[in-house]
Amino acid sequence: MGASMTMLKGANVPVAAQAVRVELGWRTSPGTPDVDGSALLLVSGKVRSDADFVFYNQPSHASGAVRHEGKRTAGDGMTDTLAVDLARVEPAIDRVVLAASADGGTFGRVSGLYVRITDAASGSEIARFDSADATVETAFILGELYRRQGAWKFRAVGQGYDTGLEGLATDFGISVDEPQQPQPTQPYHQPRAPRQPQGAPRTDRLPPAPPTAPPAPSAPPAAPPVRLSKVTLTKEAPSVSLAKQGGTSGALRVNLNWEVHKQFKGWGSKLGRAVANHADLDLDLCALYELTDGRKGVVQALGNAFGALQHPPYIHLDGDDRTGAVATGENLTVNLDQKNKLRRVLIFVTIYEGARSFADLHATVTLQPQHGAPIDFSLDECTVPSTVCALALLTNNGGDLTVQREARYLVPERGVSPQRTIDHAYGWGMNWTPGRK
Prior knowledge:
mainly beta, Lipoxygenase-1, 2 domains, seven-stranded mixed β-sheet, six-stranded antiparallel β-sheet, about 10% helix, globular
């Protein structure tokens, strides 16, 4: 991991590992834009389709070869990680471009930007490239994994774009949705499907008279363009209106995924065993709700209170995931078509078993409206013996739901359950009895 491993622009190194982790890192300070990692899987310099673009709104490639694993904070630094299983990259793909984009500023304001490739199995560093000469760029190709005579190599690139993620993606053949204008343009897009046969106007005017048939088949092949917009909630900007995000109807999917940071290699030690046990962490995503008619309750795996989408409480918890795997994690869905019946919803997480606190946990919360940009945030480092954390508060403001980042670790008093602790902190006023799952 020493500086001797740092590569010069244009240099390349062989990658012998079967699978690697690509870590983008930078230093955070006030005014630093948010940085996001992404990957493009290329055949002869272009993507085959928008599905070959892996980023925050499309975190997994269909082949399973590339996954966007999300952000972690460490002291004054931040990382965004991609997992690349080289053995699963389809034979047609000859290059995986590793890029970074800056949200809310230029890379000239991002210090300490680097890309680091490590062996996914051993954690050992294969390559590192530090980018130091950025100015007005808002997107960067930091490096690429490419095939050469049947083997994989990594090249340090360091090529910048001042057109952001959109410019970079479009360059490689991605069709990008127009930013934030979906509502007014949507109705005008619909009639365009029958316009394709208009090349022969006179003869083709008659067959499309029942225009129900042509649009239906033409809808599935034409995948919607990739949407790049998103909102990251921070301490400084902790809330957002769902209506402004276009998220006024359909389902709102809430996802929590996590990773336990295993800093200790010696599993033989007492500390090592504690961390190994920590890796079996079982977290439960839950929600306290209050309806506009005054009814209150909880949605959680305990007591099989999984809720329902089509009738009160209009919140449903998916099955229980005990791994925190990036692809799944814990998921909860809120029916936005019934948002007028919700007064407030507090989404929280408890430790069911596997650890006494959230220490060493790195977690990301994503709220994905069916129609609208995703909203995400990371949980800060936990420094107290907490077993329950308030994640986000949804409040009904005149028919619009506001999402507020809470990221608040609570410490239950002796003999008090995590649920009762969170109820007390947010003034829900419910009666609790012991439950099990």
